[in-house]
Amino acid sequence: MNKGVSSIFNELRSRNKSLDNCFTAQNLPFSDTHKLGVSEKGYPMFFIQSSLTGPVSNYNLDLISVLFNQHCSLILDDVRKEMNNVYTIVVLKTDNPDLVNYFLDVISIVLDKIGDEPNPKLLESEIEKLVKLFHCFSKPPKKTIQGLWAELFVIEHSALPEYLIQAWHTETNDIFDFNDGIDKLEVKSTSKSKRIHSFSLNQLSPNQESNLIIASLFVLPSGKGLTIFDLMDSIEKKLTSLETKIKLDEIVSSTLGVDFEKAGDFYYDYQSAADSYNLYYYKDIPSIPTKEIPLEISNIHFECDLTKINSLSAISSKFSNSKLFKSI
Q1: Nearest to 188 by CA among 176, 179, 180
Q2: CA-CA distance, 15 to 69, in Å (whole number)?
Q3: What pLDDT was estimated at residue 208?
Q4: Is the pLDDT of residue 78 over 70?
């Protein structure tokens, strides 16, 4: 999360004088043209300096509104100044702390990408992505909070998080969590006392030219552990690519869906996860030979206890040609 932007917003909210079409606002540390403001209700709002030609429709979602080509007055440093510029205004419509922080972080990334004098087509494109991102929060979750936490742990704990995020797949029809087009990585977590995981037969049957590793860890609820957002903050500090940061935000929001607002209430024991984190080669895990399964039977799932299975060590030397596995 961008701590500087968060501090600016908290300061703005403490002296909020927004009323009607005049808003309390402040300059952003990374921009000479765009502003961060606060609505009359105390919600964050960004003023993106822009002038879009041609017809363009505003957006009004449950969580955000986007208003194009707006003239308004801004109060900067407690002094009312009439701003002659035209702005695209993006407003969050909730004071949920996790959504506020997420909103501030995502818009900051977008502004960094489009620059101080955004190309109109690029701005429209990024706004469409933003709207799609926040629309995800009205959809059912694709995975459990525990499952997403485990995948974020693997990324945060990895040698090359940038590459793992590029290989990250979270659609419901994806067989493997990470797939770079060559090798596969599947993440399994449990909050129980034994290392028992549920597999589909397909998850232990990669194509012949691929290798597959299973990551296994215990994810235990903890009153003072880390949340999904804590892991995201840690990961973002290790990333250099703006596109990778955007993909991280997109995957987390689309995966959580309506669970986003409560995800910050779930804390898990990071040290326990680190201590229990093991990697397994798929051929070492008991499975069902596909040749013994009648053609009429499909969608096979089973549970397997990995407690007595030997875990892998020295991954990079064992799979020296695998960029995915060397990233773990």
Answers
A1: 176
A2: 27
A3: 86
A4: no
Neighbouring C-beta atoms of residue 271, cutoff 10 Å: 11
Q: What is the 3-state secondary structure (H, E, C) of 211-260?
A: CEEEEEEECCEEEEEECHHHHHHHHHCCCCCHHHHHHHHHHHHHHHHHHH
Buried b (16+ CB within 10 A) or exposed e, 108-145: bbbbeebeeebeeeebbebbeebbebbbbbeeebbbeb
Q: Within 10 A of 188 (CB to CB), how many other CB atoms are there?
A: 21
81 pLDDT exceeds 70? no
pLDDT higher than 80, residue 53: no
d(CA 312, CA 185): 13
Side-chain-side CA neighbours of 97 within 13 Å: the count stands at: 5
- Hey, what are 9's tokens? 């917003």
Structure tokens at 2: 């961008």
pLDDT for position 188: 98
Phi/psi for 166 (5° steps) reads: -65, -30
What residues pair up with 186 in beta bridges, in sequence order? 214
Count of other CB atoms within 10 angstroms of residue 155: 26
The residue type of 307 is T
Q: What is the reported pLDDT for 56?
A: 85
**Which pLDDT tens digit goes with each residue over 136-191?**
998 999 999 999 999 999 999 999 999 999 999 877 778 999 999 999 999 999 99
Task: Kindly give the pairing relationship between strand 79-82 and strand 184-190.
Answer: unpaired
> How buried is 21 (Cβ within 10 angstroms: 0-12 exposed, 13-18 middle, 19+ buried)?
exposed
